[in-house]
C-alpha cells in the first residue's frame, strides 16, 4: 500500500511538472504570436499608408492604427454595395456622349483605365471612338478600382437596361491586374478592399457579402505568400467565368451585339498572368479578343503613353489606340 502511494505521488509530481512545462510553452507561444501579430499589423499598416501616399516614417503608432482601422468601412460596403452603387452612379460614371448620332451605341466597361482616370472627357477612349465611329458611347466603367465585378453587377441589374440601349459593340478594357482584384486572397483585398466580390460556389457565380475570413493580421500576411499561385489558377479561371456569366446576362436582354475584350498592354503588364487567361476559350464563346499590341505594334510603355500619375493611360495612348480599334471594328 505504501508502495502504491509512493508511485501515485510520483505520478502526481510528474503530471505537475508536465503541466507546468506545457503552460510555460503555451505562454511563450502566445507571446510569440502576439509579437508576430504586431509585426504583421505594422507591415500592413505601412502598406496602407503608402497606398494613401502618407509618409509612414512620420506617423506614430496611433496614426498607423487609425489608417488601418479606416479601411474597416469597406466591410460595410461589401455587405451593402447597393447603397455604394447609388453614390458611384452619381459621382464616378461618365455621361453618355455622341447622343446626336443615330447609329446603335458603343458600351464601354472596365475600371479606371476605361473610365479615363485623370483625363478630360475629350481625351478618353469612349469620346474618341464616338467621334471616329459616329456613334453614341455609354461609358459604364467605374472611375475606381473594380472592373470585372462591376461589369457583372451592372449586367444583373434591371435598371441598367433602362439606362443603356442595346449596343452594337460592348468593349471591355482588360488589364491583367483585374485578376488581382477578383482573386479570393484576403491579403490583397486590403490594398484597397474591393467592396464587391464574386466567387464560384456550386458552379454558380455569386456575390460574396462577408468580410475577410481571417481577421488576424498574421493570417492576412501569410496569404500573401500564396497569393500569386492563386492568381494563376483560381483568379484566371474566375475571370473567364465572370466574362461568360456577364455575356449570359446581356443575352437575356440583347441579341445582336459584338463583345470585344480589349487587352491593354502597358508598362505594368504581368505577361505571366496574361498568358494564363484562356482567351481562346472566350473566343469560342463568341468574344472578340484584341490586344493593344496587335493594334499598335508595341507595348504601351513609352513615357508619352503614361499619365502623370505613373499608372493610367495618357491621352496620347488613346489617341493612338482609338483610330486603330475603330478600323478593326468597322
Query: How would you state the average pLDDT, rounded?
Result: 80
As a percent range, the share of strand residues is 5-15%
What about the largest sheet? 5 strands, parallel
Biggest sheet, spatial arrangement of strands: 2-1-3-6-7
CATH superfamily of the largest domain: SGNH hydrolase
CATH class of the largest domain: Alpha Beta
What is the CATH topology classification name of the largest domain?
Rossmann fold
CATH architecture label name of the largest domain: 3-Layer(aba) Sandwich
How many domains is the backbone divided into? 2
Helix/strand-derived category reads alpha/beta
- Rg estimate, integer Å: 26 Å
Helix coverage percent of residues?
40-55%
Order of helices and strands: HHHHEHHEHHEHEEHEHHEHH
Number of strands: 7
Shape: elongated
Indicate the low-confidence ranges by residue numbers. Answer: 184-193, 212-219, 221-227
| Number of separate helices | 14
**What is the distance, rounded to the nearest whole angstrom, between the alpha carbons of the first and last residues?**
103 Å
